[in-house]
Design goal:
5-stranded mixed sheet, D-Maltodextrin-Binding Protein, domain 2, signal, 10 strands, single chain, alpha/beta
Length: about 325
Amino acid sequence: MVYSIKRSMFLLIALFITTATFLSGCNFGESEDEIELAEVTRSVFYAPQYVAISEGFFEDEGLDVELTTTWGGDNTMTTLLSDGADIALVGAETSIYVYGQEAVDPAINFAQLTETDGTFLVGREEHENFEWGDLEGASFLGQREGGMPQMVGEYVLREHGIDPHEDLDLNQGVDFENIPSAFASGDEDYVQLFEPQATQFEEEEIGHVLGSFGTESGNVPYTVYMSKQSFLEENDEQIEKFTRAIHRAQQWVHEQSAEEVAESIQEFFDETDKDTIAQSVERYRDQGSYAESPLLDEDGWYLLQEIMEDAGELPEHVEYDTLVETDFAERVE
């Protein structure tokens, strides 16, 4: 299949596959109990991860987890490949991109955190009887080409008979972390937003949540934990402990009230009101975004590739067993 090499993602991946191969398997933590964790963005979408930190679940496993936000799939994968992180929380599609570049030490998915898309359709105007077909001819502030938000967005729109590149005035020229502010100060009709930005925009009357891309697209391993194959092989005990702590946090998030979850994770969202966080948690939990198990589903893996292929971004089909390691999740369940 012919596909386009997108933006900086493939250039950075190719560079670090070439220059960092000799570093494969190196653990730059100061002790065996330290984990350097890179997250692709900061979002209530990742509530179980923050719970694992704030409630001491990592600590209970003897792990010292240092969290860094690396803003965007390309930056996050580059950080992982160059040994700037031991584990990355990022879209599973990035592991397929790396594999497509014939990586000597590929990124292996070992636990999922979320199992739906985490973005919501936000419109500048309120629509009492909104239908997806209303987007035709409108201006849309899109996400980065080749990233999961954009690919899932395109998949959903096509399912509703809209060609995002033909039927929309699509703007993809804004960096991932600047999309909310660009919409707030711009004049596009629609945008895809994660929480808590979507709820905040409603509260500030900047926009209105009209639909959920997660509900429309179904279950997919949207955000997962991955490490280089060499790190998994050499740090079996650490990865099991990490996965156990995440599983415990997943259960905790589903058992507690949204208010209690918000209380637990508010330290990660200094500028967000606790009630807004609670509403965001409730919205994600109601639509099944928070995975209840770290075990990455095989059907979801192939739906992911269907979505990528639909967007013209799938370099090659990759079997489930090639890039998914289920052993750690199965041990802790």
